[in-house]
Amino acid sequence: MSDPHPPPGAKLLPDGVHRSVRPGTAFLRLTTTHERQGLLDGAWWPRSRDVAAELPGLITALTERLGPITRIGLDSAAWNELPTRITVDDRVVHIDSFAVGDDTALVTRGDQDLFTLLVVPPGTPLEAARAAMAEAVRAGNPKQAQQILIDTTAAEPPRGDGS
């Protein structure tokens, strides 16, 4: 996955309780362990498919917790338009796009340290999104992102008049 010894000055994934970042930025959860045992390192629930509106908040939140972010890889089919780079807080972050449909974002800190985030699709019902994000950051989670979304969406209770 990545070098177990981060570069000097690099931040580790935070210990402590899960919390979302300040209002108006991004809804993000990261695992709370220094040992990255699961397949995913966290989860992100963007509000829309507009990458220019959504990525700055994610990049800011990740930079505060992990240190400078240099690249983000996104599924090209999941977003309206993908630029090749974005500038956030006077730092250029390169955007890689792949047509893989794996429901993840690949985040690079520095030259090689890679973090994998589950991307919960915009418009996902609140309880299903919360369940997916909690599953993604569960210690030792063995599930791929796509399976987490399938399982948590299927667990969503029916809505409507009960018919």
Name some characteristics of this structure.
disordered N terminus; alpha/beta; 163 residues; globular
Structure in a nutshell:
It contains 3 helices and 7 strands. It has helices at residues 51-66, 126-136, 145-154, and strands spanning 28-30, 42-44, 69-75, 85-88, 91-98, 104-109, 113-119.
List the helices and strands and how they pair.
Layout: E1 28-30, E2 42-44, H1 51-66, E3 69-75, E4 85-88, E5 91-98, E6 104-109, E7 113-119, H2 126-136, H3 145-154
Helix pairs in contact: 2-3
Order of helices and strands: EEHEEEEEHH
Query: Outline, from the CA principal axes?
Result: globular
Structural class: alpha/beta
* Strand adjacency order, main sheet: 1-2-7-6-3-5-4
Radius of gyration: 16 Å
Share in helix:
10-25%
Distance between the termini: 47 Å
Plain-language structure description:
By secondary structure, the chain is of the alpha/beta class. The protein has helices at residues 51-66, 126-136, 145-154, and strands at 28-30, 42-44, 69-75, 85-88, 91-98, 104-109, 113-119. It has a 7-stranded mixed beta sheet, sandwiched between helices. A hairpin with a 3-residue loop joins strand 6 and strand 7 (113-119). It is globular. Residues 1-25 and 158-163 have low confidence and may be disordered.
